[in-house]
Amino acid sequence: MILQALCDYYDALVRRGEVTPPGWSVANVSYALELDEQGTLCRVRPLKAGAENGGKDSPQRLQVPEQVKKTSGVAANFLCDNGSYFLGIDGKGKPERTAKCFEAAKELHRQILEPAESPAAKAVCAFFDRWRPAEGAENPILRPYLEDILKGANLIFSFGGRYVQEDPAVRDAWDACRAERSAGAVVGRCLVTGKRAPIARLHPGIKGIRDAQSSGASLVSFNASAFESYGHEGKESGQGQNAPVSEEAAFKYGAVLKQLIDDRKHLQYIGDTAVVFWAEDAETLCRDLFSCALFGGESEVVTDEDLRRAIRALANGDPVDVNGVPLRPENRFYVLGLAPNAGRLSVRFFLRDTFGRMLSNVCAHYERLSIVKPTYVGNGALPLWKLLGETVNQKSRDKKASPPMAGAVLRAILSDRPYPASLLEQTALRIRAERDVSYGKAAILKAYLLKNKNEQIPEEVLTVELNEQSTYPPYVLGRLFAVLERVQTTASPGVNATVKDKYFNSASATPMAIFPLLVKLSQSHLRKLDGGKRVYYEKQIGELMCRIHEPLPARLSLTEQSAFHLGYYHQVQKFYEKKDKGESENV
User: Fold this and answer.
1) pTM of the model as a whole
2) CB 488 within 8 A of CB 499
3) C-alpha distances in angstroms, 485 versus 240, 445, 500?
4) In whole angstroms, what is the distance from residue 370 CA to residue 336 CA?
5) Is 155 helix (H, G, I), strand (E, B) or coil?
6) How far is CA 75 from the centre of its chain?
7) 8 Å CB contact between 169 and 118
8) Of 182, 213, 238, which marks where a domain is finished?
9) Is residue 445 helix, strand or coil?
């Protein structure tokens, strides 16, 4: 299912002219080795471009012949590789291995290019014949760039003012080589296309995913007998045949997956999981809207107003035109989460639905999160990365949310299912550790209790603002605690430790044991206030206590504690609302 969706995406990109043809890929290239007709190195042309915002120079992204997956063995690439293979030099202190690398590259280029009737092809063959690796490090042409080359920078060849891989005869030679390799492959039924075709023995390695192997991690691979079956064992007869995918399909899904990973404007991370997404018709604007809706940020091609208008229309099932691009709510949309797992990539989740329904689910999620905000928060929504950040200690070294929980939250949002219990648990742990209910945590509690229906928690307390009429004991007790805290801070400004610092957690967990003590303490604080304020707070405390028509609960469950925290948060925001409006607490 995943590979089929990726292959379909590749075909859509081909129709739009936005993807490399089969047998070709895109690589980071730092230098071009300029050759003359005799294969002599004339000069080294730097290809790095200045990075934005004062960063380091970055390699240029160029189309090159499809590269092999690098392992601990020797494996040369055609027309694009590092100094070990093209120059026989490296900085790893392994001269014997480097010599083998150079010989492997020499043999590969001879095999492919000798039949080609092209000056560029003959120049490359002549270069490998003439070049002396032992003298490479002392070559004056290489010396200015030697340090970077020794670090593994990618090199290509240039002849007559253009890159060798652009020469038509060279491209034909490469295509002929690929066809010859496929001729020796095992033919079988492809699981993706359903057609009989040469089966890929090794699947492409995907680079660029955080914490995965830098040389590339495979989505499909078999490297131990425990993973093999039906007699498909060993490097020659097994591996790819255990999950038969044609060479064409393997190339397609590898090419588009690399492209999705390389698109840093849309690649998102939640925990350790890389999240990529795409529309069935390959419309980039769909990816813009989805990324802005779920992960926040701004689009470079759409104004904020157009963005909100388009999201609302699509979520309601209506087609919309944005900057002349028609967007359809019935367009299929895919979301894939990949996480590093040793030398492979593990699939954390794969979701598919219509674009309009996914946006509708995201909008419903934000509606559940809606709650009164402190003035310093602003008017923006709570994007997913910020929501997950509320579940971790922001002072810790590792600020990543729990990967399983993060993936489960994303699945719940996009599929409109109940949130995972771990979201409530992690949020409650942070509230207990910080002894405070921030805007983000209060929004999570409200959204969780609304979506994960609980008969114990009435919806009357799951409101945007304070519900002054509610008689639900945990909610009222949360409000009462906020009032008692306010009494203390008003009577003793600048006190070192408030009742919240000492009793917040115990009050929310065991009200029967703590609240009698808190009410008694409040009497000494009330005596310090002048007549007007004293009467005002006494009246508030009395009204709240009268709303509790049953004995104080001995212990509150986790969901009941969440209602307590919401009551506390709502009451605190009500205090600030009065202050902002200039209302006197004496009135």
Assistant:
1) 0.77
2) yes
3) 66, 22, 7
4) 27
5) strand
6) 31
7) yes
8) 182
9) helix
> Could you say which DSSP state residue 70 is in?
P
pLDDT tens figures, 551-585: 999 999 999 999 999 999 999 999 887 554 444 44
Asked, for residue 46, whether it belongs to a domain, the answer is yes
Q: What is the pLDDT of residues 237-247, one digit of tens each?
A: 445 667 788 88
**Residue 411 belongs to some domain of the structure:** no
Residue that finishes a domain, picked among 126, 155, 182: 182
Token digits for 36? Answer: 């003359």
In-domain check, residue 222: no
Q: Which among 379, 377, 455, 382 has a CA at the least distance from the CA of 413?
A: 382
Q: Is 539 exposed, middle or buried (0-12, 13-18, 19+ CB in 10 A)?
A: exposed
Amino acid, single-letter form, for residue 578: K
Find tokens 């550790």 and name the residue.
433
Q: Residue 563, SS3?
A: helix
Provide the H-helix boundaries in 296-389: 304-315, 355-369, 384-389
Task: Look at the block and give the residue holding tokens 């409650």.
Answer: 428
Question: pLDDT tens digit string along 440-457?
Answer: 999 999 999 999 987 789
User: Which residue range forms the structural domain that includes residue 73?
Assistant: 5-9+12-182
513 within domain boundaries: yes
DSSP label of 463: S
Distance (Å, rounded) from C-alpha 557 to C-alpha 169?
Answer: 74
Number of domains present in the structure of the chain: 2
